[in-house]
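Researcher: Next entry in the queue.
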Amino acid sequence: MDILVERELHAREEARQLFPGIEEQVIDEDLLSDEYYQCSVCKTYIYLSQITCNCTTNSVCPSHASELCDCEISTRILRLRYTDQDLMDLAAKIADRAKIPELWSQKYNAVLNEFERPPLRTLRTLLSEAERIPYPLPEVATLKAFVERANEWVDEATSFVARKHQNRRKNERVWRSGSRVQELEERDRNQRSADYVYKLLDQADELGFDAVEIDMLREKAEAIEEFQVLAKKALDGGNVDSLEEYAELIDEGKSLNVDLPVLDTLERIVDQLKWVEKATELNDLFLTLNEVLEVMAEGERCGISLDHELMRQFAYRRDKGRRWEDKAKMLLSAEAVPYEALYALLTEATDLSVHKETYDRVESIIERTREATEHIANLMAKATSNGVGSQPTLFEARRLAKVIDELPVKPTDSINFKKMLMRSEEWIKRGKRLFGKTNASANQLEDHLSYVLARNKHVFDPTDVPKPEEGESPGAAEAKDSDDGPYCICRTDPTGEMVECDKCKEWYFEAVDYG
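Model: Structure for this entry, 515 residues:
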């Protein structure tokens, strides 16, 4: 380029010397075709400068200026594509661009020579600049592979540092299955370990670059080591005395975002301390059997030994409660249970840890039995009273008998009550047979007895006398009373079918069908 510019400037200077005062024109637009950039005489390429005349469209090189046309030499025009200064500036710019690959290589080598561990950010910038250079650089392939591997390392380190801690021991997803899922779980487990930090640091040392993430990981490794020292002292009983201090130490360990065996041990100790505190409070309270079992199960999950004093106390309450439950189950499954035994069972459960459902069931049976006993006493008192109107109904007695049959515990007077009910049932059957109504209900029998009672009251009325015969005064009639009983049974109002009375010869007896 420098040779071309030098030759072009030299040619222009010769043309100016051959044609002093020659007119110069600078063209900004391209000519119509490539023919205008060729010498019409020697066909030399005259793109940067050419000599022409207003009388023709042809152009020539400075060597053939006299052969362009027949006009005076002074009419010649020096037409330039660029001014001399623009041409020199363009040459300088092209020279600078041509030096870019060389300058990049120098910059690349300078970085490698200056830093024992080159900053990853600088290497990324170099790679970005090299990819914009339209020239094959031999160092680019190696640099690109290195930066890509370093970026992968940075992604892993960033993911590790930014990840939040998860207590996998308590939140293990047991429902997952499949080889792919197990593989992901295994990889996740490895990346949560403290060894993974040192593995990343070793990889960074092997790669030999510098990055902010490396410093962050080094700080993380130092924090892990410091925490493990503190945790070991705490486990040895040296520097932690209260539950709050244990909790603070655990929070500090969780902030490291790694799974540490010592952290699990600390959490187990905290769980045990919390269980002891909770169990101590509950030991003085009334608990159901389910609550006792739940407290013991929680203690076993925390690693509390069965020989622990609190565990032994809860086990004692559990065993007593289970014995009571077995006794209650045996009594409730029996066909007949003495009321006193069931009441004693309920009284015994007052200070025991038993199932609330079983206790409520026993209490309900006792309450129902007590209510049934009172009801029996009330009905039997009414049944033995003098007034018929105050006696209980058969429906009420039958309903009470059904309740007694459903009770596993029979009231004391239930046998006498059932005997009384059986006598009532037998009396009803006899009444039905007497009046020929064996298929009738108790209500129908009651209606019929009411009718008979009404008839008897009317028939056996001692004030009733027969009607006087013709010509006989009412006072001459005989009185109804006699040694043989009522005078007549026909003193009723006419109702339809009639028969003649043999005694008084009146047709006032109603034929009644008792069938």
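Model: The longest strand covers residues 23-26.
Researcher: Noted, moving on.
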